[in-house]
Predict the 3D structure of the following.
Amino acid sequence: MRLLLTTVVSSIAAIAVQPLVLVLWLVLPSVLSGAEMPWGDLGPIFFYSTLFATPFVLLLGVPLSLILWRFGRFRWWPLALAGSLAGAIFAGWELPGGNPGYSSGGSWYGQYQDFVVAGEPTVYGWLNYIQSVLAFALHGLVGASVYYLAWASVLRPNNSFKPNPLRGSA
């Protein structure tokens, strides 16, 4: 029962931290640069960030943590590495570019830039791609770290009833 509680608490914590990560890499730079922020859109964005994180936590994080715990190898770094890789692989699965007639662009820190021209990614296209991969890796890293901290705080050993031996005894 304690393992189930630990898994549920850790999963909720890892999912709930995702809007905060989104604020740090998306909202905060926009506000600091003086860009207009559509504040009314943040609620749905936060909702979708938690919704998007849920399958990663439940389908990857929970089984991995249970396997590591079962074999006595539950540590921060394997979870952090797995979370980072899961986010990075998902975001980086498809390289920038496209069909020969395809072109696209977008805002690169307040200025419009071409990302893909005639199916070939530009420098800004690659920079945007790398930034997206790193941002999703950050989501995975933070989610896995919070998962680990919640897990460790719930399942830490309870030493409150261990007697302290007197000096000189034994």
About this structure: DSSP finds five helices and three strands in the chain. Residues 53 and 74 are 21 Å apart (CA to CA).
